[in-house]
Amino acid sequence: MLKIGVLISGGGTNLQAILDAIDCGQISKAEIKVVISNNPNAYGLERARKRGIDAFCIAPGDFRERKEFYDALLGKVNEYGLDLIVLAGFLVTIPPAMVQTYKNRIINIHPSLIPAFCGRGYYGLNVHEAALARGVKVTGATVHYVDEGTDTGPILLQKAVEVYDGDTPESLQKRVMEEAEWKILPQAIEMIAARQEERE
Ligand code: GAR
Prior knowledge:
The protein has 200 residues and is an alpha/beta fold.
């Protein structure tokens, strides 16, 4: 079983998609060991606790310096002996030491077709606002490995989603989640888990 930790900042609908995929057997080779949020009000923490999964808030604002926040976050992650860290709407930069320690073992879901609308400043609704402002007819979502850059790591899976006339950032965000994010994130996890099983 691939041991995964999921990092979130908000609603946690991608976390829910992973939980649903576990329930229906689409993910059969991975289990969630811990969920961590930087935001105490993240509903995703509730989703995890309801399932009896360890769930913690580690908020940057509770520390005097960024380094202390980074140490606490990495320390918590390290407690669980994880094979994979999933950034499922985690909107805070992760500690550089985490990227090094978990090289090729961190994935992120991004709500666009990278390399479009990604990098610093592109997160959440902003991404869809930018896509609509540019007038693209197709957008989508990407699951990629995390490296030292922002949204620069190797791409694992992508799925395209049509933009409709009259879309708002909210309507587009919803369609990208439903048609792309909630599908390719569980798919990527099962793919990585299957690869690990083959190696063992
Ligand atoms: C998702 O749309 C995810 O792709 C995005 O944040 C949202 C979180 O929603 N992530 C980024 O923008 C990362 N750059 P959720 O909490 O409901 O899963």
